[in-house]
Structures are given as C-alpha cells and as structure tokens.
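Lab notebook, page 48
Experiment: co-folding of the full assembly
Goal: obtain a model of how the components sit together before planning crosslinking
Operator: M.T.
Materials (sequences as entered):
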Amino acid sequence: MLTVALPKGRIAEDTLAIFETIFGESFKFDDRKLILETPNFKFLLVRNQDVATYVYHQAADIGVVGLDTIEEQGLDVIRLLNLQRGRCQVAIGMRKGEKLDFSKAEIKVATKMVNITKRYFAERAVSADIIKLYGSIELAPLVGLADMIVDIVETGTTMKQNGLEVVEHIMESTTYLIANKNSFFEKKGEVLDIYEKINEVIST
Amino acid sequence: MIFEHEIPSGSKLYFGDVAKKKRSIERIASDVLSEAGFEEIVTPLFSYHQHQSVSDERELVRVNDTANHNMSLRADSTIDVVRIINKRLGRNTTHKKWFYIQPVYRYPSIEQYQVGAEYIDESKVSAVLNESMNIFKKLELEPLLQISNINIAHKISKLLDIQLDAFRHINVEHFLSYNIEWLTKLVYLHTFEQIDEVIAIVPQEIKIELEKIKELCNEISYKNVVIAPMYYAKMLYYDELFFRVIQDNEIYARGGRYKNDDVTSVGFAIYTDTLVEALS
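Observation: model returned without errors.
Model output:
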C-alpha cells in the first residue's frame, strides 16, 4: 500500500487521470473528502505547499508537486520523475520599460518564494531586501513597495495586465513525482513499479 | 525574554516513566554488549579533536581551555573513543571491544543520547551489526535494516562520470536514462535473493563491493533486511560497508566500517531518544 499526497486542483485531477489510465478504473474523491482509499493506494488531498511536507515526514510515501515548490521548501525528498506537466517559469517582473540593474546599492524584491529569491540574488552577490507577500504580488512594484517581483509565470498575462513584464527567468518548473527517502528503500518494489507505469503513460 | 519554565530548544528532559524507559534501553544495551565482550568507556565531555569527526564545524559548541586552545563539547563519540583507546590507553589495555552510553551535543543546544560500540582493529561489520540487532530484539522491535556499501556509489561515479549528488538525491530517472542493464538492476536491487543475479552482470570493480554486501548478509541472522547499493550519504568516516536501522521515518541506529590512523574498525550508534519515543 502506497500513500500518495496530491495538491488540490488541476495537478490532482491530472495525476488521478494518469492512475485511471494505468489501472483502468475510476479514482475520484467523494465530495469534500480529503482521503481516497483503494486496495493499493491511499490518496491524500493537501495544499500544494504541504505535499513535500507530508512526503518528507512519511505521512505519504510519494507525492506530486511542482519543482518550484520543492526548491522553495528545500526538503530532502527524492525527485523520482519529471512528469513534464504544469510547465511554468519562476521569473523576475518589473514595471514595463524598467531594466534590471544589479549595481544598485539595495534592491527591494517582493515575492511568495523567499528562499528561491534569496538564493538567486546571493549567487549573484547582490544585496536584496526581500519582502514576503502571500498574494497579489504584481501590486508591489505599482505602489512602490518593491522594485521588482519574483513570481510564477505561465503565460505572462497577469503581469502584462498589471503593467509589468518579465525581465529575467530564474528557473523552469514542472510537476515531479517525489518520494520519501525511507519509503523508497522500504517499499522499493512498489515505488519503482508505479514510477515505471507513470513514466510509460507520460511518455506516450 | 526567557520564562522560568523554559529549557533551551533541542535539549532533552526525561522524567518518570519515560526516564525509566530510557534507563531500561540503556541497561538492555549494556547487558547485550557486556555479554558480547564489550567493555564500557566514558569519554570526556570536552574535546580537542571533534573537528576531525564532525563534517560541519559550525555544529560544534566551542569553549576554550586555560591556554586559550580551542575545545568543543563532544559532538560525536566514535573518533574520540578510538583516539583515547589508541593514543592514551594503548599501554594499559589491549582490549578492542568498547561501548559507551553518553550524549553528544551540537550547536546551539542540541542534545542526543546515544549507545555506541566500537570494535577496534576489526574489519567485519557483522561483528557489531549482530550485536546492535540483538539489542533491538531484546527491545522487541523489528525495524528495517538497510545495508549499503559507499564504494559502489564512488566507483559508479568514476566509471560513468556521474556526479555523487545524483546518488545523494537518489536520482532514479538519471540512472535509468543510461539504459545500462547492470545499472538498472542495481537501482532495482532490494532483497538478498536478487543479489546473485546482479553480481553476475556488474563490472568487476562493482562485483567486489556487492560480494561484500552478500557476505555481510550471510553473516547475520536478522531477517527484516533490504539492500540499498546505490544509497549514498556524505559521511566523514564510514568508508565501505555501512548500515542504517530505520522505522517510521526515524533512524534508530547507524553503523559501519571506518579507518582511523590506518587502523580499520567497525562500530555503530543507537539513537536512544528516538527509541524512547518509539517505545513510550
């Protein structure tokens, strides 16, 4: 029996669709239920940011989550397989027409992804004052809270609609199948079996 | 502001039944090890040499002696136990099997109680592995024993020019992308029953290392065992066969073979705090 942590929303739907293709049966959560039990799997529906936490603490053996979230949390989990879905970019956005200038004495950056942002600027030896926000990140440069933002960009429409544009890509993110390190060794047969089956589906 | 009831984060407080449980674990371990011919040693809390056994020196809690030499609180027992026996007690004893029951301390205020055993000038890991599993048997626990050999990751890394980070992160996708049958079989190798099939097809230098795992498996009677040939962790002293004892996402014990001043020894440490929690 493998416990699988899935983030609520499209990723969970996509992943369950993959399981349906593999096993030829329906995998559907009952209304408002957070646990779905089948003979071989227990699926948990959790917040996107909590998937790696459930896996890291072995409340789930495997999970599906975006690479950006894994990088941000820095938890020691196994990145088993790139599912090649949910493709997006972590990018720097600035007001239209503004240029990225690392020579400024201090740069103010608003973001939800504090750790990725900290690492990016530290690697370039740029002093950045990072302001943690929980949403509506695009607002920050417009009201003078920050010089720029670091945020997830899929099509760039939200930034464009708010008078911002992407000036630098930090990383590309797709969803990954992750596993708990101890679960991998304890249940290697089961974990690698589902790895193979999912890989087969996403490769076709 | 510090409240009167506060204790530093990471420090340990045991009382009543839980303290009794801790003492019982230590007594059982002490009985098993004494019966197997290990003698007890208690080493100083202050040490001049801990930087040699702790990979990140920032983890040391430092103090200074009267001549302003750097000292630190014991953060790891193994190297100090071996050094004291070889360098300080060498003229007084020829005994090779030692055990200790004492905590280690890490910066800023992390305490960890341990039971450990070192068998100096011995290269067979089974000589200590069997004793550590006897302790778990007496505690009526049957955790998973994982057996690995760090040379396998090192040799594959050289052979195929794969970075050790890929092993540290268990990058299955990367290993399988090579489409090399023996490498794929190594990734999948899990049980003792599968090992001969893999030994038959791996390159000679890997074969030697897998044979060592096989030999160790043959020398132990414990049944709940998995083989993890691709497991790699940054360790300062284990240099060949090593093992982890795991359950419920916790590490109960760790041990293996190491070298100190050209003397090969084997040893293990059991993490008492984790066992206290598991048994309480």
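Interpretation: Chain B has one domain: 16-279.
Next step: discuss with group before ordering constructs.
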